[in-house]
Structures are given as C-alpha cells and as structure tokens.
Amino acid sequence: MTKSKPKPQTQPSAAGKEPFESKKERARKIIALLHKMYPDATCALHHDSALQLLVATILSAQSTDETVNKVTPALFAKYPTAESLAAADPADVEKIIYPTGFFRQKTKSIIGAAKAICERFGCDVPETMDELIELPGVARKTANVLLGTWFQKNEGVVVDTHVGRLAHRLALTWSSKNEKDAVKIEQDLMQVLPRKDWTFTAHALIWHGRRVCTARKPKCAECRLNTLCPAAFTFDGK
Ligand code: SF4
Predict the structure, then answer these.
(1) Residue-wise pLDDT tens digits, 8-24
(2) Separation of CA 50 and ligand 1 centre (Å)
(3) Domain 12-42+157-222 belongs to what topology?
(4) Residue 24 falls in the annotated catalytic set
C-alpha cells in the first residue's frame, strides 16, 4: 500500500509528549501490521544449534549476516561442538572468521565462551540472561538473540542498529534520536511492546529496516507503517 500525500500525522518533536497509553496503542497497531508484512520474520544468521547461533551472533558484530553466513559453514564443520571449539587453535579460527572483521577479539570471545560453557555448564549453552551475559563476548543483545530465537523466551528486545533507528523514527522510545545506548532503548521498548511480541518485533523491525526504512533513504511513500509513524515524510537526511 502506498501513500501519495506526504503529510505526516504528527511531528517527531510532538512524539515525545505522546501519552503512554496512546504510544502503547500505536505500538500494538504497528505490530499488527508487521505481522502482516513479515509473517516469517526471523533471525537471518544460519544455525542449527544454540552454540552455532551464539557463535554466529558474536561474529555478526560490526559485520553483516551475509558475511557471517559465508564463514560459519567451515567453522561449524571443523568445530562442531563446544568441546572442539574450546580446544581450537586460535590462529586457525582467526583465519576462518577473518572476513567478519575484528577477528582476533572475536576469536578470543568464541573460544572463551566455548571454554566457559564447558567448564560451567557441562558444554550446554545456558538458557538464562544472567548466565549468558557472564560468557566472554556476550552482552544483552547477543543473549537476547539466543533467548528469543533459540530458546523461545521473551526476556528482552534485541536492539541492533536497525531496531535502534526504527525505535526512534517510530517514536517507540523516549530517548532522543541521537541516543545510542541500546540498553536504554531496549528498556523503553520493553515498556511499550507486549512481552509476547518482543522477539518477533525485533526481527520484523530488522527486516523493515533493511528493506524499507533504510538509514539513508527511508521509503516512506511505500511504507505500510506511514500513518502510524511520527517521522513519516520528515526525513531530513541526517
Ligand atoms: S519508512 Fe518512513 S514511514 Fe516507514 S517507518 Fe521509516 S520513517 Fe516511518
């Protein structure tokens, strides 16, 4: 559906004054549309186990899912278990994951996480936020990916660059548009979104951010959320 008349309903500056209940109601309508637009929205990182998803998510920092998906088949084939990854030669892992960038730090994180999983959790990836964020290289975002996508637990909202940007444009956060603190944005989203939709909404916003509401040129005219978006047609290129 397209909208021909570029007239925003509300200016972004007014969005901060939006009553809480109204924001929640608008969020509910946005989620309903996202379900129609992206019924199959899910994590784009290829994985067949919690460990694979954990490793792929760590590798995705400052990289693209496409690049990660190119390197993980070789990595997972050579190191199929937490035990094998814990005992891996760092130089070999660095070589395999090199295209994803920050390969030395990421190697430390994934081997360190595998060691911790074996030492503390019997080589099974833990299922709680508190345990996950104790692993090397794992912060709330990675833990939320694991909990929501693999363990089907809505413990938080994944806030990556797309979700952060869309949370601001859709005025689902009270923070300013320059606010980069993902934890603050996540706290706002957890207040505004129904808990059962936390995981789906993050996936759907990531898909929408890649396809329609891109960083530089949001396609507001073809965006099905444009009547619910305070930033519709106001994009100033900054
Ligand atoms: S594309 Fe435009 S209307 Fe749609 S969510 Fe982004 S800023 Fe809002």
Answers:
(1) 333 344 455 788 999 99
(2) 33
(3) Endonuclease Iii, domain 2 (1.10.1670)
(4) no
